[in-house]
Specification:
This protein is mostly beta strands and about 300 residues long. The strands form 4 sheets. A 5-stranded mixed sheet has the order 2-9-8-4-6. It is rod-shaped, with a radius of gyration of 47 Å. The N terminus and C terminus are likely disordered.
Length: about 300
């Protein structure tokens, strides 16, 4: 009989506890977030790898221990990794960490903000399930960072070039970041001392490139007339102006190989005949030069000599 009365008493107490609303519990319980600089107007910045960390807590000032469960709503198609349920002792305060991952910062505009929410539901008191679970929420903002990312691409040459000639290459710069940018610096280098380039790429430093867009310019390559036959590697390196202005660094480079060949043969020279060439002999004499009068006299004497023979 005593055991029966005790069981009934425990059951009644349990029902009273289960049916008692949270407002009537002494002190109550709640959830809070540790904001940056302890200011709830400050957002949590998402890193370039799409992650963020949020520290939060649940305190219990009630006279009974409680069991709570957690749910998370993450913006920007992110994923949440945090506790699923916890026991909070009477008068206790527990801290937790919510790890946010999987946000594609390149797919969202720089500095854009959206709310995340942590929902905490009290499911039992003193291990006794609550017929009407009570939920409380805490929320904050996630902010997409500014991502500066320029990519340079140099077109491949259509073929080799001759010494003493020029070749034009097209250079394309793409803005893969999520904020407007422009080229900060340009460096063109090669491993052939008789190869030179012009300043055609300097115009890139004057153009704003929208996020997801590109711009193009041309560079002229010149090979000296005395350039030997050789493979030359030409490299173009650029930096992000936006990254440099914010204390960061973003550098991209690309290179191509150019083949320099000897100049073509001179086609204006006459071709040699196919047959054997004729040799012209020049006979020189050391005899003194005979005057015209002496020559005529010798001819007349020769004529008279012929007549006498006859």
């Amino acid at each position: 009989m005593k055991r029966y009365r005790m069981a009934v008493t425990v059951t009644i107490i349990s029902l009273l506890i289960a049916s008692t609303p949270a407002q009537s519990q002494i002190g109550g319980w709640d959830v809070g977030i540790d904001f940056p600089q302890d200011d709830d107007s400050n957002p949590f910045s998402v890193s370039e790898d799409g992650t963020a960390t949020v520290d939060f807590f649940v305190y219990n000032d009630e006279v009974l221990p409680i069991t709570v469960e957690f749910e998370y709503e993450i913006p920007f198609e992110g994923e949440a990794d945090g506790p699923e349920s916890e026991n909070i002792a009477s008068g206790g305060n527990k801290s937790f960490t919510l790890a946010i991952t999987g946000i594609d910062v390149w797919a969202h505009q720089a500095d854009s903000k959206e709310d995340f929410t942590i929902t905490v539901t009290l499911v039992s008191r003193a291990s006794i399930p609550q017929p009407l679970p009570e939920s409380k929420e805490a929320s904050g903002e996630l902010q997409i960072p500014r991502v500066y990312s320029l990519e340079v691409d140099v077109s491949d040459p259509v073929g080799p070039m001759n010494a003493g000639s020029e070749m034009s290459l097209q250079v394309t710069v793409r803005n893969n970041g999520n904020v407007n940018d422009r080229v900060g610096s340009i460096e063109v280098s090669d491993n052939c001392p008789l190869l030179t380039t012009d300043n055609g790429l300097d115009i890139l430093t004057t153009r704003d490139i929208q996020s997801g867009q590109k711009t193009e310019a041309s560079i002229m390559i010149s090979a000296s007339q005395s350039h030997p036959q050789r493979n030359c590697d030409v490299e173009v390196t650029i930096s992000s102006n936006g990254a440099a202005n914010t204390g960061g660094s973003d550098i991209s480079h690309d290179e191509v190989r150019i083949t320099v060949e000897p100049p073509p043969a001179n086609e204006e020279q006459p071709e040699e005949p196919d047959g054997p060439s004729e040799t012209v002999e020049i006979v020189s004499s050391n005899l003194p030069f005979a005057s015209p009068i002496l020559t005529i006299s010798m001819v007349i004497l020769a004529v008279f000599s012929v007549k006498k023979r006859f």
